[in-house]
Amino acid sequence: MLLGGSLLPASASAEPGGGLSGAGDGETLLASRNIAMPFPGVEAAGLHDTFLDGRPGRRHEAIDIAAARGTKVFAVDDGTLAKLFTSIPGGLTVYQFDPQRQLAYYYAHLDRYAAGLREGMPLHRCDLLGYVGTSGNAPPQAPHLHFAVFRLASPPQWWQGTPVNPYAALKSATAAASSGSSAAKTRACR
Q1: Which of 26, 52, 60 is nearest to 150 (CA)?
Q2: Is residue 69 situated within a structural domain?
Q3: Nearest by Cα to 77 from 135, 134, 31
Q4: How many independent structural domains does the chain possess?
Q5: Predicted TM-score of the model (pTM)
Q6: Closest by alpha carbon to 60, among 140, 144, 131, 146?
Q7: pLDDT digits over 119-177, tens only?
Q8: Residue whose C-alpha is closest to residue 190's, from 126, 116, 107
Q9: Is 22 left (phi over 0), alpha (psi -120 to 50) or beta?
Q10: How far is CA 90 from the centre of its chain?
């Protein structure tokens, strides 16, 4: 199975026994991470569950979040920068592992990377990763972040895993950020 909507090498595959929707332990694990929004200012109404939407010959398996070109994109969680990768479909991309190396976060269609990014570096929630753009196969007039999550296989490899729908976790992050609570401070990047 190709992850991130066929944005990975042809050698990518799903975790054995994994489902397309990422239901079960992948969604539970993601919910427990209390991820941040990858950029500020996203209202709940601006999120659309496009995970199961069709694309030519495949499913989307990600959420597209519209934003102005050049909007800062931040790490949604602590972890490690696993891979900086450029592909025809995804353009400039970042793969981030969570601290336990159980989940990977995938950020695609970036306009450019943040200065100083390097593979293997530790990341903290809200570290700057790059800027929203239209690299890869994104329509030039529709800048957006293609954000995907997958449950990593064992041993963890940046191109393998089972897709997990990030919609509920992002919706929760949006609600927390707009609540003004103390929890919002840890889930809203500025």
Answers
A1: 26
A2: yes
A3: 31
A4: 1
A5: 0.84
A6: 146
A7: 999 999 999 999 999 999 999 999 999 999 999 998 999 999 999 999 999 998 887 66
A8: 126
A9: left
A10: 12
